[in-house]
Design a protein that fits this description.
196 residues; alpha/beta; 27% strand; globular
Amino acid sequence: MVSRRAFLRGGSLAGLASLVPAAGAAVRPRASLRGQPFEAVCDTRHPDGDAFLTAISPRAYRSHGVGVDPGAVLSVMADATAAGRVVLGLTTPTAFMIARQVAAPHGYGLAFQGEHDYLGKDRLHHRLRGDEAWLGELATLLEHSADAWPQALGRTLAGLPADRECTATQAIDCVARHPPGKPGQRVSWVLAPLRA
């Protein structure tokens, strides 16, 4: 009969051995969000936020709705940075600023940022910052997505690489119905652990 102590010691050693890569195995960081767990944060007071959250939730590790209090982002960012997870969001500029300031001391940088402003006469202005390799394609997608831009943006951001900081900027105007009420400016963003 094996004692409890010997059993637990053997389990601990087996667990440690499984953490060591096999000889000749290449260990590479994941550059894309496809396999990497990420958290989604969204302002759910407006239809755009609900649409973004609906599109991204099936792929997210966890999804968080932020209501009236942008300070709710503090606990989300604390959990995500402690676990080293990427965080995607579509929020107000205030909630984005809080998230960025909380994440910065943990080596997180901005892999993507989009500012979305409703203009008069059913026009929407997108100002995008991201990696030059994929920013043009994202801008074209948003330009042709009209009212479905939050869903298109959410699905696309979940599959983009989050391995370098924003380097390129692009601005586009497109047709989109103005939602009821005054939605104000929305900011979409991806904060990722980019610096050691």
